[in-house]
Design a protein that fits this description.
- The protein has about 290 residues and is of the alpha+beta class.
- The protein has three domains: about 110 residues, Thrombin, subunit H (Beta Barrel); about 100 residues, Thrombin, subunit H (Beta Barrel), CATH 2.40.10; about 35 residues, no CATH class.
- It is built from five helices and 16 strands.
- The strands form four sheets. The protein has a six-stranded antiparallel barrel with strand order 3-4-5-10-9-8.
- Strand 3 and strand 4 form a beta hairpin.
Length: about 290
């Protein structure tokens, strides 16, 4: 997990120079209610059938959570349009289920708990340009990676420096500060419309090899007519703050997928679906107690 593809080929994406496979876990999320499908958000592949994204991508403040049948995802793509013959490495799948924390209430709750787990209809096949990002919920590891000024990668080629939360609040417009909720971190300059849900990943050396770990999910940024304003900050939902929510669904994967994933993260593989609380009890009996 978390390995970028070596010796990538230079390509132009939306005016930026990128390398194919530079972030092989990044997926595009498309709304199927238009023809052709329209890309609305991004996400990060963590297993061959699970994507982590932002809850607000699948939410309407009036009708609330939108049905999974409205969405599809694609990975290994270079070009934004859903169907592009030059995307020879692309893999696609409809979305089977969308899981959102019950506390998430969109703008009414200042986008607290802005995280979503997508379960795919079709499992992706790991290849040169399709690989998962790493997950780790160790708090000390998280703190070591999240140091002011340390660079993380998001989407294609943007490197964003981590910003201390106090500095983030002070540097943000007064009307935006209420959206920097307790489960948020801040980084870099603002992103563009359509970047929501993309993952902020930081590298960690593993026996001389850099592996990228998912630390945040693009959530909110100050409102601005210039949708790609480079002189402001973006808030990200912090992954480690949602450990239980993520593990609840990772533990209910198909047996084979879960046991492969278990080698990368300490998660209990349930033989068949069960409630979150039952899963916690079984997890706690097999591992160190979960943090509360």
């Amino acid at each position: 997990c978390g390995r970028v593809t070596p010796e990538g080929v230079d390509l132009i994406i939306d005016g930026r120079i990128a390398k194919r496979g530079e972030l092989p876990w990044h997926v595009g999320i498309y709304r199927k209610t238009t023809k052709p499908y329209k890309q609305i958000c991004g996400g990060s592949l963590v297993t061959n059938r699970i994507v982590i994204s932002a809850a607000h991508c699948f939410w309407d403040d009036i009708s609330k959570q939108q049905p999974a049948s409205m969405y599809a995802v694609a990975i290994g793509k270079i070009y934004r349009p859903w169907a592009n013959e030059r995307d020879t490495d692309a893999q696609k799948s409809d979305v089977k289920e969308i899981k959102i924390p019950v506390r998430f209430q969109g703008s009414a709750a200042n986008f607290q708990d802005d995280i979503a787990i997508l379960i795919l209809e079709t499992a992706f096949v790991y290849q040169t340009y399709v690989r998962p990002v790493c997950l780790d919920f160790d708090v000390n590891f998280d703190r070591r990676q999240l140091q002011p000024g340390k660079l993380g990668k998001i989407l294609k080629v943007v490197e964003l420096p981590y910003v201390d939360i106090e500095q983030c609040i002070l540097s943000s417009p007064p009307g935006f500060r209420e959206y920097i909720t307790s489960d948020k971190i801040c980084a870099g300059t603002a992103l563009c419309k359509g970047d929501s849900g993309g993952g902020l990943a930081f590298p960690e050396s593993d026996r001389g090899i850099d592996r990228y770990y998912l630390r945040g999910i693009v959530s909110t940024a100050p409102n601005n007519e210039n949708l790609c304003n480079s002189h402001t900050l973006t808030s990200f939902t912090q992954i480690v703050k949602h450990e239980h929510f993520i593990k609840e669904y990772l533990s209910l994967m198909d047996g084979d997928s879960c046991h492969q994933f278990k080698q990368r993260i300490n998660v209990y593989c349930a033989p068949e679906p069960k409630s979150f609380y039952q899963g916690l009890l079984e997890y706690s009996s097999r591992n160190t107690p979960l943090r509360t």
